[in-house]
Amino acid sequence: MASQDADDTQHTGAADDGATTGPDPKIADPKIAAAVAAAEAAGPGNGESVRVDSWIWSVRLVKTRSVGATACKGGHVRVNGERVKPSHSVRIGDEVRVLHEGRERIVIVKRLIRKRVGAPVAVQCYVDNSPPPPPREALVPVGLRDRGAGRPTKRDRRELERLRSLGGLGFLPGGRPPQERRHSPPADE
User: Fold this and answer.
1) Cα–Cα nearest to 69, from 57, 60, 81
2) In this structure, what DSSP letter does residue 86 have?
3) pTM for this one?
4) What are phi and psi for residue 159, nearest 5 degrees?
């Protein structure tokens, strides 16, 4: 019973001082902690909200704010399952889904910030529930020539175009199949 009381005391002591399960190495860094504090100071006050296009740009889910606004207008941003306009307000606890560059990012808002911050600080502002990115396919370099081989001949250029076309199936560079030659029947038949 005494060992059980000791365990209870240790558990309640850890809960009372506000400690988490372990120190977060990202926040333990004083530079990151200072940057997080600066981002929160520049952010909205209690009960305020931030525009969704501004927030997804601030936490580096998209490259520019205008790309974020365009994604919202195109229906590629959802907050709590609903398509939203760029001016939609984001609050702490909202689920934001962004479809960008062929990948869906699913994040839960943890902190609201208005200004763009560095990547180590940005990851502190959301919980990432995104599926892992698809593996990069090993691309075979098509049309690479040896250094010093000179200009390609006409035959070399045709082979390069054939390889670059759709799967090397003999399509023309524009992606259309070659026209078959059709001879008109002789006039006397």
Assistant:
1) 57
2) T
3) 0.56
4) -65, -40
Per the structure block, which two tokens stand in for 143? Answer: 């049309």
What's the pLDDT tens digit per position in 145-154? Answer: 778 888 889 9
96-121: per-residue pLDDT in tens? 999 988 889 999 999 898 889 888 88
Give one DSSP letter per residue of 39-74, joined into a string: HHHHS--TT--EEHHHHHHHTTSSSSHHHHHHHHHT
Distances (CA, A) of 182 to 170, 179, 185: 18, 9, 9
**Rounded to 5 degrees, what are φ and ψ at 173?**
-55, -30
Instruction: Please compute, for residue 57, the number of CA atoms within 13 A of its CA located in the half-sphere on the CB side.
Output: 19
Q: What would you report as the CA-atom Rg of the chain, rounded to the nearest whole angstrom?
A: 29
Residues 68, 170: Cα–Cα separation, whole Å:
40
- As given in the structure block, the two tokens for residue 37 are 């504090």
Joined tokens for residue 149 = 């081989």
